[in-house]
Amino acid sequence: MKHKILLSLGALLTALLINSCASHAGGSYSGATASRDFAPATKNLAERPGLATGWGDEKKSELSQGTFVRASSKPAGSDAVYYNDPTGIEAMARNKERVVPLQTAAGGVVEWGVKGDIGFLPTYKGDGNRRLVAGQKGSTYSILVKNRCRSSLEIVASVDGLSVQDGQPASFSKRGYIVEAGKSLEIEGFRTSYSHVAAFKFASVSNSYANMRHGDTRNVGVIGIAVFTQKNVNPWTWMPDEVRRRETAQPFATPPR
After folding, report:
1. Eight-state DSSP code of residue 37
2. Closest by CA position to 159, among listed 213, 229, 230, 120
3. Alpha-carbon gap, residue 232 to 238, rounded angstroms
4. Pick from 153, 5, 183, 180: which is nearest to 78 by CA?
5. Would you call 106 helix, strand, or coil by DSSP?
6. Which of 139, 140, 141, 244 is least surrounded, with the fewest CB atoms within 10 Å of its CB?
7. Residue (of 121, 119, 152) closest to 223 by Cα position
8. Closest Cα to residue 12, out of 60, 72, 66?
């Protein structure tokens, strides 16, 4: 990451308490532990086809501390993207439709998508409007989230059912990254320290972090975000002239004279 990422102070303190005895290449920050340190937790796993997320190379991604009080214990909204290789995408959605990679979520306060090594990954809408992205084994990816409103948001993200902050089972109660108004967040991997992450890397199911660390592959193939708004702050009307601007919006451009 070229820019620093803000982390909820609660997550920072929790991680330090949980992992005071942990040791990783990048320091002792989160519960996420390199898959190379473990034999596969599930022995004799029958190889499932398609992609999961493995443990990639270490990447620099610095954190800045910040505080954020949630408006509610429940997110303002959540969303999911399902991923697989091209063959798997065909099996999951025979009548798929190609769509733009960035989609809105949580009532429009954010838009987000999945980036590959070069540009965004091919993105589709399948049955039931399920969103799908196609990846390739061995390549890396990142999650891009853009804050479209006028106040800070907290983004809690998961990959294969695991928190990107500590590599443990994801839940809404865990803290996430703070994204300032109008700014973007790029999550490139499972956090291993204050300054580094292990890159998200497409892998086989048996070589996934979920299997290598937890022996649980039930939730491989899905990326999720939960969006929390700030207490006592309306993300849309905080800008005084926003309502007026929307009331005076024109449905058709004025023709040139």
Report:
1. G
2. 213
3. 10
4. 153
5. helix
6. 244
7. 121
8. 66
pLDDT number for residue 174: 94
CA angle 118, 77, 84 (to 5 degrees): 35
| Rounded-to-integer distance, Cα 204 and Cα 193, Å | 26
What is the rounded distance in angstroms from the CA atom of residue 132 to the CA atom of residue 126? 7
Contact 39, 67 (CB under 8 A): no
Rg of the chain over CA atoms, in angstroms? Answer: 19
Listed in sequence order, the residues at least 6 apart from 197 whose beta carbon sits closer than 8 Å to its beta carbon are 58, 59, 61, 187, 188, 189, 190, 191
Backbone phi, psi, residue 65, to 5°: -75, 150
Q: Which residues pair with 137 in a beta bridge?
A: none
Alpha-carbon distance of 181 to 177, in angstroms, equals 13
pLDDT digits (tens, 9 = 90+) for 154-175: 999 999 999 999 999 999 999 9
Q: State both tokens at 17.
A: 């308490």
Alpha helix locations (H) across the chain?
Answer: 9-18, 86-92, 209, 242-247
State pTM to two decimals.
0.81
Is pLDDT at 34 greater than 90 in this prediction? no
Contact, 81 vs 221, CB < 8 A?
no
pLDDT tens digits, 195-204: 999 999 999 9
pLDDT tens profile 95-135? 899 999 999 999 999 999 999 999 999 999 988 889 999 99
Kindly report the three-state secondary structure assignment for every residue of 1-16.
CCCCEEEEHHHHHHHH
Q: Which residue has the tokens 């509610």?
A: 72
